[in-house]
Design a protein that fits this description.
The protein is α/β, with parallel strands linked by helices. The chain has 10 helices and 20 strands. The strands form 4 sheets. Strands 4, 5, 6, 7, 14, 15, 16, 17 and 18 form a 9-stranded mixed beta sheet that branches. A hairpin with a 2-residue loop joins strand 16 and strand 17. The longest helix is centred in the N-terminal third of the chain and has 29 residues. The two termini are about 25 Å apart.
Amino acid sequence: MKVIVLGAGLIGVATAYYLWRDGHEVEVIDEQAQPASVTSYANACLISSSRALPWPTPAAAKTVWRALTDSSAPMRITKPFDPALWRWGREFMSYANAHDYKRLTRAKLSFARFCQTELEATLQDTGVDCGYQRDGLLYVCRSDATMTAARGRAALVAAHRYEMRVLTRDEVIALEPSLSSSTVVGGTLAVSDAQGDSRAFTRALAKWLTDQQQRPVRFTFGARAEARMTGGGRSCRIYGPNGELGADAYVVALGPKTRAFANSGWRVTGRIPIYPVKGYSATVPVKDASRAPQRGGICEDSLIAYCPLNTALGPVIRITTGAVFAGDDNGFADADFAPHREHFEALFPGALDWSSPAVEHWACQRPMTPSSLPIIQQDPYYDRLYWNCGQGHIGWTMSCGSGRVMADLIAGRTPSFDLSDMQQL
């Protein structure tokens, strides 16, 4: 069976791996020049399974109001009159109740655990090196209020079989001595959370697939695909720059570009419940290793995430923050990265070389669904078309599990994970 995967980011390449493992002839098509060049290029690099909580909460109305009125909030809405955001937001708010929050929490935490297990199996089976390190992620608190909230969050995820340790200030510093000059009051350690370079993983796995002696996966870059309806909308054909792309099945793994694909030519399906949410990342060389963190983590007060990475140019720290509802605007300015420096320096003063020409700024759009669970399903109208998208802000965490379940669907097997609570088209 020939399967074409549209998209060479984390989700697309992981899907290609599981399809290849099932014995299919696989081709991956992407309009960029190499894998992991957009959303997967410079993300937080944290496998934060314990942090896989749904965005729609019973307190969502307060969060939305702050996003509309507070320009310093981590979540901001800068395009409030976008009709697509209103449609998305209406469904989002429909889940913002205690019953759905409990249901979505159970599903998302369970799926994240399943996905991390699949990621670790993939790393073991392929030998791909991405600097994967599973010794827990540290969630630090700088105020009594966030410490109280962290205790509640730890109790919530512990009820779903995640090991969480609530730590005093001294215990936090024992784990991360470089925090000794900060004002942290405590934190939590998510014991099974991990870290690794997602871009390195995606590109190394793509190379591993192309290097196989049997059925090497073909990657075609610089090629944009679009869908066209034929027969009065009774069938769907996929076209590339040189004509129709022939295959037995097609998997759409285009992240935030999924809506544009669905709307290319005629509309493929009734709706694609994905809205792009922009985040910002700064990758900064380490100046003083003794002051830098040795493991990844998140500051509960500022909601910056940080992760130490080893690169060809030496050690760096990836710092990410922000969730901006700005429509298709993926631009950024220097001011967008001021919070990265301010809040990181409050934790690890003097660790990084902010003046280095090697500092890299990046913005990317995360494909968020209203439920914050992904879309992994066969199209309801066109039986050769499949969707693997909407993994949102934890695409790295969900990549391999999403790929395995998609391969199950294409093979006609019972999915390895129950999909009944996933976002639906």
